[in-house]
Amino acid sequence: MATLQELLDQKAALERQISAATKASRGEAIVRIRTVMTQHGLTPADLATPQNHATGAHTGSRSKVAPKYRHPDTGATWIGRG
Questions:
Q1: Distance between CA 78 and CA 69 in Å, rounded?
Q2: Which sequence spans correspond to the domains of the chain?
Q3: Alpha-carbon distance 16 to 24, whole Å?
Q4: What per-residue confidence (pLDDT) applies to 48?
Q5: What is the C-alpha to C-alpha distance for residues 52 and 74, in angstroms, rounded to an integer?
């Protein structure tokens, strides 16, 4: 059976291997991302701007809705949204 010190040494060695693998994986991901950005003419600013054109989601505000509720005394109306 391994001693406590041997196990701690193994743990340290594994943590170094994990750190090295993480750095290598990040580097590969950055290269792939830069390649795709270059192919599509994208800049970092393009990534910071919310654009949902590909998904078909609307980027504007909600459409107008007819009032659903009316206060009986003041006549104030609201639609019941947030």
A1: 5
A2: 1-49
A3: 12
A4: 85
A5: 41
